[in-house]
């Protein structure tokens, strides 16, 4: 009995080891795809380029993904999950005594940190050649994000109509997206300057709408 048990133990561990190796390989391929999508765009990217960036053969890539759209969908789904966590923190309720500049700055910083750490998110979700398979995920994320912004604004604009709150939420998100494209196009001190410009624009836009609902510095 002891001999049989000794032989079985490694076999029982093999599926877990294979699964761990597979997860590492998938992570490696997704990281490579992110780099390629950012560099060339989705349409111009190829599975060969992704495999080359990952340092593996195309055959190895096809063991995990049938085509580049499947890679983009997997990458997009993982990023959407992370983004939901990021905006959950960024759009948390704001204490009434919080200065408007501080509230806006904290939210923008959290969103910018995510997008600058994962520039492929913008490349996939907002590029002109968004893969069809992740369009639905993007639309759901956008709708949820607008809803969270509406909820936050509703507490700061109690006299506003629902239509006004929705419009304001869309404008805020539009300002952020436009600024994000500029931020991602720059590095270092210049990037930081563009981030500050986005904050300033949002504060100037929201200031007259919020009034004294939040403290002002």
TrEMBL record:
Which GO terms label this protein's molecular function in UniProt? Answer: DNA-binding transcription factor activity; transcription cis-regulatory region binding
Q: Which Gene3D superfamilies match?
A: Tetracycline Repressor, domain 2
Per the database record, which ranges form the HTH tetR-type domain?
A: 23-83
Cite the PROSITE patterns for this sequence.
HTH_TETR_1 (PS01081), HTH_TETR_2 (PS50977)
Q: Where is this region: Disordered?
A: 1-22
Segments of the chain annotated as binding DNA: 46-65
What the entry lists under InterPro entries is as follows: DNA-bd_HTH_TetR-type_CS, Homeodomain-like_sf, HTH-type_TetR-like_transc_reg, HTH_TetR, TetR_C_22
The protein's name is TetR family transcriptional regulator
Q: Which organism is it from?
A: Streptomyces cellostaticus
